[in-house]
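Table 4 source record.
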Amino acid sequence: MDSQSLTLFHVAISLVAIASGFVVVLGLLGSNRMPRATHLFLLTTFLTSLTGFIFFSRDQLLPSHITGVIALVVLAPTSYALYMRKLAGAWRRIYVIGAVLSLYLNVFVLVVQLFLKVPALHALAPGAPANPEPPFKIAQGVARAVRRDRIPRREAVPSGWRRAARAGACLAGLRAALALPSPASGRGERRKRDLRKR
């Protein structure tokens, strides 16, 4: 494969990673894990960083290499939380933060590359990313909006309410098992007897 084909392959993988990443984060917002999209997102995010190192190796360390290292470091505990720990306990939170951060890094690199490679965008911010002009800052601000972790957690319900609901369910189950009347039905029977006496 020539360098142009390698570049196109790398770009295609990164775009699939970003698209599937948005699907995964939207799924998390709706408390839906979406296993297939998640596998695709994690795999293509890993391949994006890997192909960046293999296809575009340089004699000196570039910012893109540093971003690739950060992406792989973030991806390691994210994948471990999902596949090895099955999102148990605190690993669920680690997975969510890692998934959102991985998507942010993909979008961050996309924005940088767009301003470097697309002539119309480069004309708006010729010094980006080293000396970012307002258009580049605005684009990065929009990318940061992706990173906001407003992902609902099961723990968002106050623990006191959960305990009360559990206790109520346990009492109802115990009454049913013992065939005892509930307090509400007991009050209703007493009221009927009082009305009959009158």
